[in-house]
Design brief:
This protein is an all-alpha fold. The chain is built from two helices and no strands.
Length: 59
């Protein structure tokens, strides 16, 4: 995954990011390579940011 594909303030929803995370694990067969691990970590950080945004918006 290129660094440009994930950035702070992403417009992707938490649901979309969750789906991407699940798809990554399915493609990897439950064991991530170094590159897949880096992609996973970026997706999780972006997902957490999206979740926080959803909570703040709901409040």
């Amino acid at each position: 995954m290129s660094p440009d594909s994930v950035f702070p303030g992403s417009v992707r929803s938490a649901a979309e990011l969750n789906e991407r995370i699940r798809a990554l694990w399915l493609r990897a067969g439950g064991s991530l390579s170094t590159q897949e691990r880096a992609e996973y970590e970026l997706l999780v950080v972006e997902w957490a940011t999206a979740i926080r945004g959803d909570v703040v918006t709901a409040a």
